[in-house]
Specification:
Blueprint lengths: L1 H24 L21 H30 L22 H11 L1
Length: 110
């Protein structure tokens, strides 16, 4: 059922994008834009990559900052607890101590 819901959400979002695109294409602004000439304003082949790198340099820290801010907000304002790490403790025998001595100490401690 989850897959069907996800597919429906994708179809609905795609439909919304198509409808918005159709509405924008009817505006006077749309006639001034030629999609076939997109990218021709670049004078050097490196410029689009440089712009993409600049966008990534802004987007990645922004996402990290938003995640940190949400974690702080959830802890301080909403009162949610931070996820705790569960420490795994294995039983280890100290060097030079046999298991018989461990058993005797365990019996004495009870």
């Amino acid at each position: 059922m989850r897959t069907a819901k996800r597919i429906m959400v994708v179809w609905i979002l795609a439909f919304v994008v198509i409808v918005v695109w159709a509405v924008i294409s009817k505006t006077p602004w749309a006639t001034t834009v030629d999609p076939l000439t997109a990218g021709k304003s670049f004078t050097h082949w490196v410029e689009p990559f440089r712009e993409l790198a600049g966008m990534l340099l802004v987007a990645v820290p922004a996402v990290i900052l938003i995640r940190f801010g949400w974690a702080w907000f959830a802890r301080t304002v909403l009162g949610r607890e931070a996820p705790q790490r569960v420490r795994v403790q294995g039983r280890s025998t100290p060097i030079g101590v046999s298991q018989d001595q461990d058993a005797r100490e365990l019996v004495r401690s009870r």
